Amino acid sequence: MRIPVGVMGLLVCLVLGLSGGAALAQQVLQSSFKVGFAFRVANVEYPSGSYQLSYRSGDRFLTLRNTGTGDSAMLSFVTRLSSREKGGIVFDKAKEETRRLTEIYLGDSDGFLLEAGQDDHQHERVDLKP
Questions:
Q1: Buried b (16+ CB within 10 A) or exposed e, 65-101
Q2: What is the pTM of this model?
Q3: Angle at CA 50, nearest 5°, toward 87 and 25?
Q4: Nearest Cα to 104, choosing from 50, 63, 47?
Q5: DSSP state, 82?
Q6: What is d(CA 45, CA 39) in angstroms, rounded to the nearest whole number?
Q7: DSSP annotation of 95
Q8: Rounded distance between C-alpha atoms, residue 28 and residue 49, angstroms
Q9: CA proximity to 52, closest of 66, 38, 35, 68
Q10: 3-state secondary structure of 29
Q11: Cβ atoms < 10 Å from Cβ of 103
Q12: Residue 24, SS3?
């Protein structure tokens, strides 16, 4: 069976239009924060400074960018968290260790758990700027 050229062109436009519409529907969340201390994420240490966080809906990672140096990294997360916190990040601090970035809450959306906390630790929350 042969499909007329006009119908084939219509089908191609329809498929491209639908896939492009899905891409446009992705939500991007961004916030920034400033910390006066070094911190760790997944055994990588980051210096104190100003950072920007971003997340595109559907991705399995967030992007962390040092706004002073331009260095960036992709942060994978373990699971999503309920939105009990609004626009903040949570660091875990155990004894004399460097603080660990463990939870991220961008805006009013559900949060992200980057890693589970240790047994004996304290939380330190830092507010995000939109």
A1: beeeeeeeeebebeeebeeebebbbbbbbeeeeebbb
A2: 0.75
A3: 50
A4: 63
A5: -
A6: 6
A7: T
A8: 23
A9: 66
A10: strand
A11: 21
A12: helix
Angle at 56 between CA 51 and CA 59, to 5 degrees: 110
Cα-Cα-Cα-Cα dihedral of 68, 69, 74, 76, to 10°? -50
More confident call, 12 vs 57: 57
Domain parsing of the chain, residue ranges: 27-127
CA atoms of 42 and 70, how far apart (whole Å): 20
Task: Output phi, psi for 112, to 5 deg.
Answer: -130, 130
Residue 45: CB atoms within 10 A of its CB come to: 9
Residue tagged 């400033």 (tokens): 34
CA distance 102 to 21: 34
Sheet with 49-56: strands ordered across:
28-35, 49-56, 61-66, 72-76
Cα 22 from Cα 48, distance rounded (Å)? 38
- Would you give the distance in Å from CA 113 to the centre of its chain? 10
Query: pLDDT of 14-66, one tens digit each?
Result: 444 444 444 556 789 999 999 999 999 988 999 999 999 999 999 999 999 99
